[in-house]
Amino acid sequence: MSLAEHLNHIGPALILYIGAGVVLTADMFSGRAAPRWQLAVLALIGGLGWTYGLAMGDTRGEALGGAVRVDDFALFFSFLIIASTLAVVLSARQWTDSIERGAELYALMLISAASMVILAQANDLITIFIALETTSISQFVMAGLARTDRSAEAGLKYLLTGALSAAVLLYGFAFLFGMSGTTDLDGIADYLASAPEEQRLPLLLALVFVLAGFGFKMALAPFHAWVPDVYQGAPTVVSSFLSVASKAAGFAVALRLFYTGLGGGDTFLSEDWAMFVAVLAGLSMIFGNTGAILQTNAKRLLGYSSIAQAGNIAVGFAAVAAGSTIGPSGVMFFLGTYAATNLGAFIAVQAFAERTGSENIADFAGLPKRSPVLAVVLSLCLISLTGIPPTAGFIAKVYVFNGAVQTGHEWLIVLVAVAVVNTAISAFYYLRWLRTMWLDEAEDDSPIEVAPAVQAVLAAASIGVLFFGLWPAPLINAAQSAAETLL
Amino acid sequence: MLIAFLLVPLLGALAAVLLPAEQEKNARVVALGAAGLTCLIAVAVFLGFDASQEGYQFVQRFDWIDKDTAGFAVQFAVGVDGLSAPMVLLLGILSVVAVLVSWNIEVKQKQYYAWLLFLETAIGGVFISLDLIQFFLFWELELLPMFMLISQWGSGRRLYSATKFLLYTLAGSAFMLLGFLVIGFEAGTFDIIELTENPVTDAVIPLGLVFWAITLAFLVKLPVFPVHTWLPDAHTDAPTAVSVMLAGVLLKMGGYGILRISLSLLPEQAHDFSAILAAIAGFSVIWGAVITLRQTDLKRLVAYSSVSHMGYVLLGAAAMTDVGLSGAALQMFTHGTITGLLFVMVGIIYERTHTREIAKMSGLMHHMPLTGIVFIIAGLASLGLPSMSGFVAELTTFLGSLQAHPAATIAAIFGVVLSAGYILWTVQRIFHGPADPAWAHLTDARTWPEMVAMGVLVVAIMAVGIYPPILTDAIESGIAPIAAIVGGVA
Hints:
- The complex is a heterodimer.
- By secondary structure, chain A is mainly alpha-helical.
- Chain A has one domain (about 5-485).
- Chain A contains 21 helices and two strands.
- Chain A has helices at about 5-10, 10-30, 35-55, 70-90, 95-100, 100-120, 125-145, 150-180, 185-195, 200-220, 225-235, 235-260, 270-295, 300-320, 325-355, 365-370, 370-385, 390-405, 410-440, 450-470, 475-485, and strands at about 60-65, 70.
- A two-stranded antiparallel sheet of chain A has the order 1-2.
- In chain A, β1 and β2 form a beta hairpin.
- In chain A, α15 packs antiparallel against α20.
- The model of chain A has no long low-confidence stretch (mean pLDDT about 90).
- By secondary structure, chain B is mainly α.
- Chain B has one domain.
- Chain B is built from 21 helices and two strands.
- Chain B has helices at about 1-20, 25-50, 65-70, 85-100, 110-130, 130-140, 145-155, 160-185, 190-195, 205-220, 230-235, 240-265, 265-270, 275-295, 300-320, 320-355, 370-380, 390-400, 405-430, 450-465, 470-490; strands at about 55-65, 75-80.
- In chain B, strands 1-2 form a two-stranded antiparallel ribbon.
- In chain B, α1 (about 1-20) runs antiparallel to α2 (about 25-50) and α12 (about 240-265) packs antiparallel against α16 (about 320-355).
- The longest helix of chain B has about 30 residues, at about 320-355.
- The model of chain B has no long low-confidence stretch (mean pLDDT about 85).
- Chains A and B meet through α18, α19 and α21 of A and α6, α7 and α8 of B.
């Protein structure tokens, strides 16, 4: 394999890394006059194009000595991550123009996104850990970038919990490596296939550590404590990036490690870790939804909601059955629709907050009059988050819950029962917000302008929410074929 | 044909929203056109329905989620049988009535009519779905327009009531989805026809549990004691048209679900629990009636009477005999027209008196003779006077259930006595008695939308009362297979 071929495999990430460097260099030479936004957008479009090229072509398999692997699964997530980042960047211009370190934000976001793409491709424990750290560290800085007290606090909190979770993750990796003697996921899978029953306990310990580490990225309870604080305190641009791209990357790497490295449903351990994931899923839904009920700040509410949604997604993660793709494909379908939904919600909140200076839900009163676009998009996204048809959120929930029932495990049915009750609880706070928006009278009914780029992103998000709600087949097909490469 | 039945209101809703602002007034014309056309389609479906054949007619199917790729199949499949055809007709009629009684709505007309038409599509989808997931989709879809209609155009504690409605329904339907998924996993299909022909006999969790998971949603919707408390609130605070739709067709989704899904898909479990269902039904009839007697608010009174009357539907269903099930199906249709009419009348009175306090009204007959007469007709039909549709339905229900559940039936028959009490007492307090000069300015209900709305429903009530076979032929062809399934278990 020639160097060019190796580079071709990691092309999407590479182009983003280069983009980050170019943005910083341009900023260094011409400061604010530099077209940093345009450069970042260009890099992301390049990344998307490269991913598309890989998906259409027949470049598949391992590269860089087995450190990364290009397959449908990696490409699905690479597309999802870069597209979400593009949406975030497109809507970020106004805010970055107002702060001192706009170029740094773009550079950090590109680095973080690139590392997430590598994370989705990673096929080796070392690669996973390095990519995870790179993406995390850039996120710590981004969270603190606004230089307000809250933002600094968010950054520090994120850093401390992140460092702890990385340590725990590494501990789990050390166990896995110690027992299997390899860091290669396929090698670990081979070892597990013939592992003696006595090693169950240390292996389980390793899995618990690893899940704790990933749970932090996926925002699963009980590793969720940072989420509301960071989402509220960090700049909204960063929060939306964290809630979508970072979560997708967390699930991507966890799926890859557990379904490929740990043999999916085919090993004696699978039911153990699936049960553990199920417990985390249940806790996340309960903590997330009960926490969200009392919130009055829009970003904090979305933070709790994203914990609950992580629980919903994890139901699909736990739905592991030998040889079946229905669990992981549910995770991917959910993440795909969730990206459109949550980005729509976050970006609408961001556009609102930039103009009004308020993130209070009560201030959303009378939004339809002030900005019909924001009101309609935000409503659609909230309905989709609740899981009411005809939006994509409905299909996603049915798909994931169905996947869990299809495994035929009683305990997963109990989990789905917890999940459906939580759906009803979540309706309370999502629709309360909707109600405030449409029914309460605004104190100030000056119109809110929305920049064209932001409008375009919002339109794309709502089209996604409706399109996949009415015609889910294309995304299901993509998720299924991506999930097949896992097994 | 059935696709058009779903699409026409939807397109009407779209057209209403897209009207230019200066055409706001014409939203009601658009709505009436769309609802009228839908009603014609519903009539055509009903007349075109061949009652001499069992099974579904006008069936149309499309693959929605493909089995080969997704691992499970969801189709978009519609069809009517003898059970759903009358429901389709009822929905068609009541939607026109709903548009007519909201003729004078002034706030945000475009949105109002759009939500109303959207509601019609959502409810229609429930009645004609032949796939469990599709059924669930429409079941949930109906929440949104109802929430919006009650919370935006309602009165009183409208936000509270709309939220309560929503949470009760969502909590119920959440478990319904779980039940559907378990059945679908066991049978490998969500197709209602296939599942009816080959009921699942075993599942990962006990089927009794599945039965209750699903039936709970229907009991909430019906509603029966003790999950009925959302209903009076929703009714009281909803605008008239929404009350008509709520009492007329929305509650029927619960009864329809019990017959179509609980009984047909899980006959053995339904049979095992029939005594419990009958007990709930009997208690609900009495409890609803007693509470109704105590109401001082006219709209709340009619609302609580629905709790009592929908108990008959559950009683007929719990009988699980041919006659009992027919009674239940018939009661659904007749209650829809009768209570629909009662709510229309309450709306007409409230629009003029601006009060719903029964104590404040007296001798309205002097000023509003037509209103009074139609109210009395609706009241008499509601208490089950022979020659009106309520009588036929209740009698059939009791005949069907007496043998299977004598205690509950006798309790329910006592409920008829109570309902005669509250109806006659209400009529006496509002319409009779000395003329109150405070009400001398009242005008009778003589605008054309009001007259048409009342006329249509009175005709429907009388027609079924005098010549029941118009409905019962169709109903029996739909009920026979269900009765054969649940009856076959015993």
